[in-house]
Design goal:
This protein is α/β, with parallel strands linked by helices and about 260 residues long. It has seven helices and nine strands; from the N terminus they run βαβαβαβαβαβαββαβ. Strands 2-8-7-3-6-4-5 form a seven-stranded mixed sheet. The protein has a two-stranded parallel ribbon with strand order 1-9. Strand 4, helix 4 and strand 5 form a beta-alpha-beta unit. The two termini are about 20 Å apart.
Length: about 260
């Protein structure tokens, strides 16, 4: 029997299993986004390339059955921002690594990601870039995004913000985060996670397919507010259309409470 979630607001409702369980530290002007030291760069390389990447490949390929379609789209650009739907508690931390390979992937996260004692340094080494929770951190945050573009990396963003496990449709999301590619003059690639029924062990969770779009570019002839809306609409159109075409399998059912 399918698990059913009832929702009232597809923009603000959150079904993450960790919702409210982690106390977030304040990410302010004292938080170090950039680490120019050679020691940090070496540690980050080993943590990401030597330690994490092989484990991510094993976990995503064997356990989740992940396939990535049109990965070559990321090879057509240098640095870029990738916008993906948010449908996994754990796997969404790993899908950027396998989707962007061989590019380095960074993920914009909530402040709670770097608030867990004992692993906060590790998650930073692996590429977590927390959203500022104070205005004093925004300058350093945006500088870090520019550094990532200079590194020719892929910065992943989950614009839906909240996790809806195994959701097979794309929810509406705002255009605010699309200011990053507009300010850096960087391309956007849209990504959508869809699910397919297992051929064996059918009672387990479904397998995953990630579809990547061709790159979109900010329109320099438009003011930033209009340019970011245009990028958002292009990304949403691809994500929504692709989810409808390839994501018909419904493992978890979502029902709007007002329709009962």
């Amino acid at each position: 029997m399918k698990r059913v979630y009832y929702y009232n607001d597809e923009v603000n409702d959150d079904f993450a299993s960790t919702n409210g369980k982690i106390n977030s530290d304040t990410v302010n002007g004292d938080y170090r986004y950039s680490h120019p030291s050679v020691g940090w760069k070496i540690a980050s390389f080993f943590a990401y390339r030597v330690f994490a990447t092989p484990l991510v490949w094993l976990y995503t390929k064997v356990w989740l059955g992940v396939r990535v379609k049109n990965r070559r789209a990321l090879r057509k650009v240098k640095g870029c921002f990738v916008y993906m739907n948010h449908t996994q508690n754990i796997a969404d931390a790993f899908l950027p690594t396998i989707s962007a390979f061989p590019k380095r992937a960074y993920v914009i996260t909530g402040p709670e990601t770097v608030s867990i004692k004992g692993i906060r340094v590790l998650v930073a080494l692996l590429g977590a870039v927390p959203l500022p929770s104070a205005l004093s951190a925004y300058r350093n945050f945006e500088h870090r995004l520019k550094e990532a573009m200079q590194e020719k990396a892929a910065v992943f963003i989950y614009p839906e913000a909240h996790i809806w496990p195994y959701c097979n449709f794309v929810r509406s999301f705002p255009d605010k985060s699309f200011s990053y590619p507009c300010r850096t003059g960087s391309p956007v690639v849209a990504a959508v996670t869809v699910y397919r029924r297992r051929r064996v062990f059918k009672k387990l969770h479904p397998n995953i397919t990630v579809y990547l779009s061709e790159p979109f570019y900010p329109d320099p002839s438009l003011p930033e507010k209009q340019a970011r809306k245009k990028l958002r609409d292009q990304a949403y159109e691809f994500m929504s259309r692709t989810a409808k075409e390839h994501g018909s399998y419904e493992y978890v059912k979502y029902i709007m409470a007002s329709e009962l």
